[in-house]
Amino acid sequence: MDEIFRAAVAAGATVVKEAVAGDWGGYSGYFADPDGYLWKIATVS
């Protein structure tokens, strides 16, 4: 997931919320693409 997040930022995305471990046991973060659309990427452990 971290690699995908870094690739998105390298391609022009803006970090909205850094990827962090959640209370629910997963790991997620948000970014905005160059057009302003928000994306969430997450994993579940």
From TrEMBL:
Concerning PROSITE patterns, the annotation shows: VOC
Q: Which SUPFAM superfamilies match?
A: Glyoxalase/Bleomycin resistance protein/Dihydroxybiphenyl dioxygenase
Q: What is the lineage of its organism?
A: Bacteria, Bacillati, Actinomycetota, Actinomycetes, Pseudonocardiales
The name this protein goes by in its record: VOC domain-containing protein
**InterPro entries in UniProt:** Glyas_Bleomycin-R_OHBP_Dase, Glyas_Fos-R_dOase_dom, VOC_core
Q: From which source organism is this entry?
A: Amycolatopsis oliviviridis
Q: Which Pfam families match?
A: Glyoxalase
Q: Which domain of life is it from?
A: Bacteria
The VOC domain extends over: 1-44
